[in-house]
Amino acid sequence: MLGFISSRIIQALAVMLAMSMLVFLGVFAIGNPIDVMLAPDATQDIRAQAIAFYGFDRPIWEQYLRFLGRLLQGDLGSSFVYNIPVMQLILSRLPATLELTLIAVISATLIGVPLGMYAGYRPDAPLSRFIMAFSVLGFSVPTFWIGLVLILTFAVTLGWLPAGGRGETATVFGLEWSFLTADGWKFLLLPALNLALFKLSMMIRLARSGTREIMLSDTVKFARAAGISEWGVLRHHVLRLILVPIVTVFGLEFGSTLAFAVVTETIFSWPGLGKLIIESIGSLDRPVMVAYLVLVALLFITINLLVDLAYAALDPRIRRGRNA
Amino acid sequence: MSAPLLEVRDLVTHFFTRAGVVKAVDGISFTLNPGEVMGLVGESGSGKSITGFSLLGLVDAPGRIVAGSVKLNGQELVGLPQAELRRIRGKTMSMVFQDPAMTLNPVLTVRRQMRLALAAHERMSDAAATARCVDVLSRVGIPDAARRLDSYPHEFSGGMRQRVALAIALLHRPAVIVADEPTTALDVSIQAQILAEMKDLVRDSGTALIWISHDLATVSSLAGKMAVMYAGRMVETGPTGTVLSAPRHHYTRGLLDSLPSQAEPGQDLRQIPGSTPSLLGLPPGCPFASRCPAGTATCAQVSPEITWEGGRGFRCHHPLVEALA
Prior knowledge:
The structure holds two protein chains of two kinds. By secondary structure, chain A is mainly α. Chain A has helices spanning 2-30, 33-37, 44-54, 60-72, 86-121, 126-140, 143-157, 182-215, 218-225, 230-260, 262-267, 273-282, 286-314; strands at residues 170-172, 175-177. Chain B is α/β, with parallel strands linked by helices. Helices cover 32% and strands 23% of the residues of chain B. Chain B: Residues 6-256 form the ABC transporter domain.
């Protein structure tokens, strides 16, 4: 176990090093941030000063090594635009995205898995056909369009919910959370629904195909032959057997949504990480982009590690060293 | 004479597929008394497993029992709602399958799986449940059962795994066990052990056993009577000894002749020519007619009815003459 974790950590460091290099080079290729940062009428003198201040006159490898050196000391640099440490900037945006993502992914799983299991258990029932048609829709209709329709329907036409922004928040551990206030929930609902639809469709399809396959297996036949009720078979046998792929997708979806809820956050002007990265790309805020993408790599590595550990907890055959 | 424990009469199970109706089981009849062992023999696809599933009401869609009767202790099972069938399954009649690696749930401990099977019919305390599980596991020959209770199926060997499956089937002391090729997936030496234990179990508990197999050797060592199935029909039935020593149906004869023990070393094994007919759209006559050495025009046209002679029956227009000793 210890060997497994330490080898994963070394892997993770290598991935992050490669990632930081790629991102640094990529961002360097986009354009010169000085052009965006300075007013067009700035004098040549100020320009040269700024270039020297940020170290843009050095060769790229030197800039990269300096960045890396600071990174090792935990310093991700400061935003060109906001002039505050990047870490502080990201942390201030993280809660908004984290709560939005968690609500979307968890509700998609809690609703999608039972629906998918029903559709797999009764593939020919009218309700199953409806569920599957819905999931095809959720898969194929673009997120931005659904977001706009949601705003049009619930905010513009019905006027039930706000069209964007974050609303009232409560402070816990020095971070701002919306899910603790009733007003916050009003603002959360539409973007969370928008984000959840695609994931819901995916969970439905995953649970359905797993259930269909397992319902035909001898395990289910044997359980039925022992007199276990259909509900018991589904709950105790089938659910446990389809859990491994569901946990995988849950992890991946959680990671990618956390990192790239860009479209939804933009549509609903949700002040989260997705909006931050879009803004920083627009203003060529290099430290934010690099730090953000390196952190995303770290996030995915951590999630993958957790998913692997969850496998071992869910499927005893993956655990080693206890074979009879 | 009192009513038999299990009475199956003219059981017919069809599968309604898109390609047509598959007559998987076509008129099976037999009776079973407590403690009796019946062998159900046939090739793959002869309908022997579907017969087993039909008894427990476990035929999956698009299959359905279309006719006949299954009476357990006088109670008619055909047409019973699933909820009532569920109360019988595992309690009065249970089933063991071919491959324990496929039947046991790989992600649940043995304790959990046995507990689920127990809870299906009885509410009991954890301590009582554990005691029952350990007792049944020891009875089927699992050493150190109390410790093995928290193991997962993959931590057992093939033979031990089948014993666990058997223990689950035995939890409620059922009156009938349907065993669908339970030793086929096991090593020969393990097969012999399990067979010996099955014999003891049947003798000690008075459980009746339906032993489904394609292996004539296991059937002859275990079963007091047997039925031979071909293309969904019961072509011959009777006491195991007489059926095997003096078969009346040409298919049974063919099965016996193709056993390796019937051939001289170095000689090719005898085979039944041709292959099993598709159960989709069987010809009107005897399904074995085209492969039968005694097949005639009548056989191809008219399906033979079952002929009863003493304790045995066979479906053939031109039965083999009983060899006179």
